Amino acid sequence: MGLKEYLRINRQRAFLVLFLITLTQATTTVYTYLTSPELNAISQGNFVLFIEMIGVQFIIGQICNSSFNIASVQNTKQTQNLFHNVRQKIVHHYYQKPDKVSEMENHLGNDLQMIQTSYYDVYFYFACDLIYVVFTIGTLFTFHWILVAYSLLITLLAIAVPRLLEKYTNKATEQVSSKNARFLNTIANWFDGLEELRRYKNKAILKKKIANSSNDLEQSEYRRDKTLIYVELVAAIFDVAGRVGVPVIAGILFFNHQVSLGAILTAGYFANGIFYSVKSCVTKYAQLKSTRTLRNRLAELQKMSSEKNHDSIDEIATIEVKDLSVEYSQGEQISYPDFTIHRGEKILLTGDSGTGKSTLFKTMLGQIEPTSGVVIYRNQAGKVIKPDLNQIGYLAQDLTMFDATILENITMFDQQLNDQVKSVVEGNAFSADVRRLKNGLNTQLKVKQDLLSGGQRQKVVLMRALIHKKTLLYLDEATSAIDREATTKILRNLVGTKNTVLMIAHNLSTDQKKLFDREIHLEGK
């Protein structure tokens, strides 16, 4: 992610920006250069020529201001279009490979903001300063070549020395991004439990955790700024050497009758402009390079991974679990019994807490890598297939809802399914719930507000899977918050389908358990 991407997003606009900033610096150089004939006109007593130069200078100044402002606006538009494109690609990446919310927020928000302020905005002004330095050093040729030689020497030294600090600025910027991601993760983790902390009046631990993470972030930003200040300090040394040296050399040349009086003052103006711009270029170059690792990381996130060829979940005839075991990070290991599920079976999965029922589901869905063993999906012919596990109807205990209507949460925004909603609502004991809501299925939900009860949310997510014709369902405590009568109706509806169902439940009655074809009970150690 760099200059190539900036140019590629809209080449015509990018070259317009380059043309306008070149025009800006060219007119700025001419504007300053006219000081010399103005001063010579005053020394010669030529008032008319002096007024003419002032008029020309005024017109050039207006062209300079206009071209710079237009370039700035076009650069902002180019950059924002680029970031829109980048965000779309990163979202596509995370759609395929989800990550922690804090990581995604950091890359889509803070990292892009840092790239804008420390790379693209800096690049704009870096280009302005660099073009100005080229024009002004070239203009000094009209006065004397020694002025050019001295300016080039100081410029090269000013650029070469700070490069030694490049790896430190790059590392410092990477640390800021990393610490910001941790800070966002800390906020997400602890504020999720805010109600519980308030219930037990434990504000101190919240303040401590947020303060520690915040302090780490602040320290990383301080170290980055300190590194960049060192670069500015080095640049300032050469800045002073250039500003003082050029007028001194011009004065010596004047006393040797090699340049005019106007040339001395104009050379001084140019020296101020040149070495201010050189100092600015050095500082901005350090900022540009400091973002390299971060830009490379964002570039990786934008790479489109090829869509893998998966078999349809409708082809699954059997699911085999063999020698399966999972080890947790703290060292605990869970081993599972071998079993086979046949298409259309309705199986109840039970077991005490800690026997790994939910972990089994996540392993069968490919979300957790097993320590040993395999989960094999076969088709009707007995051939091993690789279905798209993301297409399996999975109802986790942590239900996913969206800021949308109940209807949209059921259909997942597919309006072609609207006509089928009535039947799934009736089959899943949700009709009475709908009648109690003023706007019925068109009731607007807010994820952060508990408008629906836990049982109602379970019904909505279950209806979502059924209306989308998911032929294979993994249900993790899908009716735990639903009353017994409604649960019985839902279970009767489920067993009456041709779907393959594997359901975790712990609070079913004997009659409800009898609705299933069989039960797999997981034993503890």
Automatic annotation (TrEMBL):
The keyword ATP-binding applies. The keyword Transmembrane applies. SUPFAM superfamilies: ABC transporter transmembrane region (SSF90123), P-loop containing nucleoside triphosphate hydrolases (SSF52540). One of its GO terms (cellular component) is plasma membrane. Residues 319-525 form the ABC transporter domain. Keywords: ATP-binding, Membrane, Nucleotide-binding, Transmembrane, Transmembrane helix. InterPro entries: AAA+_ATPase, ABC1_TM_dom, ABC1_TM_sf, ABC_transporter-like_ATP-bd, P-loop_NTPase, Sigma_54_int_dom_ATP-bd_1, Type_1_exporter. It is found in: Cell membrane. Residues 15-290 form the ABC transmembrane type-1 domain. The chain crosses the membrane at residues 122-141, 147-165, 229-255, 261-282. GO terms for molecular function: ABC-type oligopeptide transporter activity; ATP binding; ATP hydrolysis activity. PROSITE patterns: ABC_TM1F, ABC_TRANSPORTER_2, SIGMA54_INTERACT_1. It is a multi-pass membrane protein. This is ABC transporter, ATP-binding protein.
